[in-house]
Write a structure and sequence with these properties.
The complex is a heterodimer of chains A (334) and B (272). Chain A is α/β, with parallel strands linked by helices and 334 residues long. Helix content of chain A is 35%, strand content 18%. The N and C termini of chain A lie far apart (98 Å). A ten-stranded antiparallel β-barrel of chain B has the order 1-2-3-4-5-6-7-10-11-12. The longest helix of chain B has 21 residues. The chains are: A alpha/beta (334), B mainly beta (272). At the A-B interface, helix 1, helix 10, strand 6 and strand 10 of A face strand 6, strand 7, helix 2, strand 10 and strand 11 of B.
Chain lengths: 334, 272
């Protein structure tokens, strides 16, 4: 009979998963603590955000604890996250998605483009579209104008080569990425695979690797792809504060190309790659876990500056002109 | 450096365990007579449910339906039993908080294991077996809703100790078996999920650099209680309740606990 004791022993063993799995407490305080600690341990950009995260803990914890419903809790947690002023930091629930209000205001409050003017007077009704790029020629075919409004629209190197070859008389091209809020980073490399890269350093990047704010894994150097038969004409990249995330990465890369000039306004930044977690109450949080440094060590997290600042002139727009595009055309023609 | 040292220790422990088994005293002297092995193709199909908690992704515990399949080869001698097996357990994890956001994870674990067991005692219809197993479990999980869409993988390399009790009555054989891993190596990410939106070679490298081998103990537990019936020609038909759990333990940063409870039907086809 003693031999049968093996069976209850095995059943006890089979229940030991309960010892290791703790059902997480679902309370406002548990959600707040988990969120605050996650950001404290894994967020990668405290050094450029000038935020005292410890002080924020005491400032917001009691408010979160005493919030009376989900909407109130969401607003408190979103307010706390918004102090990071990072477009890659979001709180996501079934009923709302938080965003950095500062980033939003920078993007839309300082738009350096008038879309109807561009659509009507530069792309025109006879524009073409390939791989998410809308394009036409300006100044009697001497300038190729390409509007790329989102990195979520996939473009392949062969598609971009096709666009360029279609206009052999163009002396240069304008890549208009104003208000391009980012998307798939792969498309950066698809575009750069047409540009005259020679293995030059584009940027360095590091991922957060430990609980302290300055715990980072070793630096990864990112270099330009070496390209056969690249496009060697002049390229002008148009950017503004709405050029965010992947577009900022692209602008940072373009600084290392001799034939590319950045024109317009500083980008919106967003050079930290995002990661997410679920919270104890079922919501999600998204936050940056990497930092990106220019070849000279500068962290352009808050925006990549243009080589030449050109602000959109309302008088020009009223006359149906985009003075930023006009300046880009001048750079190419001269 | 630590991983290399532990790998060396793993080899030493494996050899020590195998050799110690060779010298275990036989309780049934008559069975030491050499005999050709009974060889089987072993197949199993199971359904049940899984329990999943990956703290690198979510502090919540998820449960959902699971299914399993296995294919292997087994050779039985009166005193020895050797087997090699490939297992697959797949599960989906459905959001417990129906009013919250979707977390509809789907994942699977592919296992490859080889074991040697020796009968250490026999008393009437009872027989007792002990042995060692080398196993490797590779897991892949996909979450279509987290971070746009995310994928992660992990791997466990294990040295397991196995104990088995059998009670044979006529053509019926009842069994209870337990496995634990005194030595284990888990390969897990510092960050559990890669955001497919930003997945480029460079981003993948950054994130994959955070995968690391970690040595531990008791990362794997398994129990198996069941019965098998010997059919014509020596084939075996069996029914078992199997519970298995992989875990990185209670203290790791991105703790994983993944368990499956399965009702498994097995067919062992005799080859000779």
């Amino acid at each position: 009979m003693r031999k049968l004791l093996i069976i209850p022993f095995i059943l006890v063993l089979a229940s030991c998963e309960k010892l290791l799995i703790e059902e997480t407490e679902y309370s406002n305080l548990a959600t707040f603590d988990y969120l605050w600690e996650t950001i404290d341990r894994e967020y990668s950009l405290f050094d450029v955000k000038n935020v005292d995260w410890q002080a924020i803990h005491s400032q917001y914890r009691h408010r979160a604890d005493t919030s009376s419903n989900d909407i109130e809790l969401f607003e408190i947690l979103a307010d706390m996250l918004n102090l990071l002023d990072d477009g890659h930091v979001n709180l996501i629930s079934t009923f709302d998605v938080s965003r950095s209000e500062e980033t939003f205001l920078r993007s839309y409050g300082r738009q350096n483009i008038d879309i109807p003017t561009v659509a009507l007077n530069y792309l025109g009704s006879d524009y073409h579209s390939t791989g998410g790029m809308a394009y036409n020629t300006l100044r009697d075919g001497k300038v190729l104008y390409i509007r790329y409004s989102s990195f979520s629209n996939n473009i392949s190197p062969s598609q971009l080569r096709f666009i360029i070859k279609r206009y052999p008389n163009a002396k240069g091209l304008i890549l208009d990425m104003r208000q391009n809020g980012g998307g798939y980073i792969n498309n950066i490399w698809n575009i750069l695979n047409v540009m005259p890269g020679q293995g030059q350093l584009l940027y360095r990047t590091q991922i957060k690797s430990g609980p302290s704010h300055d715990d980072f894994a070793p630096v990864e150097a990112v270099t330009a792809p070496e390209v056969d038969n690249p496009y060697t004409g002049k390229v002008v990249l148009l950017i503004d504060r709405g050029s965010y995330s992947a577009t900022s990465f692209f602008a940072l890369c373009c600084r290392s190309y001799d034939n590319i000039t950045l024109v317009g306004d500083t980008t919106g930044g967003g050079l930290g790659l995002p990661k997410g977690r679920q919270l104890p109450n079922g919501w999600y949080v998204r936050y940056s876990v990497t930092r990106t440094l220019a070849p000279d060590g500068t962290n352009f997290e808050n925006g990549v500056p243009p080589d030449e600042v050109v602000v959109l002139d309302p008088l020009s727009t009223a006359a149906g002109k985009d003075n930023v595009i006009e300046r880009a055309c001048d750079i190419i023609e001269n | 450096m630590y991983a290399r040292r532990y790998k060396k220790n793993l080899k030493v422990c494996t050899m020590a365990l195998v050799f110690s088994l060779l010298w275990l005293p036989s309780q049934a002297g008559g069975d030491t007579v050499r005999r050709a092995a009974d060889c089987y193709i072993v197949t199993g199909y199971g359904v049940g449910y899984s329990v999943f908690c990956d703290q690198g992704t979510s502090p919540l515990v998820y449960r959902g339906p699971a299914a399993a399949a296995s294919l292997g080869f087994e050779a039985d001698w009166p005193l020895w039993r050797m087997s090699v097996e490939v297992d697959f357990v797949g599960g989906t994890y459905i959001n417990r908080f129906q009013k919250k956001l979707n977390f509809n994870n789907i994942g699977g674990v592919l296992g490859l294991n080889a074991s040697v067991m020796r009968r250490v005692s026999q008393s009437g219809r009872w027989s007792f077996w002990g042995g060692v197993e080398l196993a490797d479990f590779a897991g892949l999980r996909h979450n279509p809703s987290l971070n746009n869409s995310s994928t992660t993988f992990d791997n466990f390399a294990l040295l397991n100790l196995c104990g088995r009790v059998e009670y044979t009555i006529g053509r019926w054989r009842f069994h209870a078996e337990a496995e634990v891993s005194p030595l284990a190596f888990s390969f897990r990410p510092g960050y559990a999920f890669i955001d497919n939106h930003s997945a480029t070679n460079e981003a993948d490298k950054l994130l994959l650099d955070n995968y690391k081998w970690q040595a531990g103990a008791f990362d794997f537990f398994s129990t198996d209680i069941g019965v098998s019936l010997e059919l014509k020609g020596g084939n075996l038909l069996g029914l078992s309740y199997i519970w298995g759990m992989l875990t990185t333990g209670a203290s790791s940063d991105n703790r994983l606990v993944e368990a499956a409870h399965l009702l498994v039907i097995s067919f062992n086809f005799k080859l000779n």
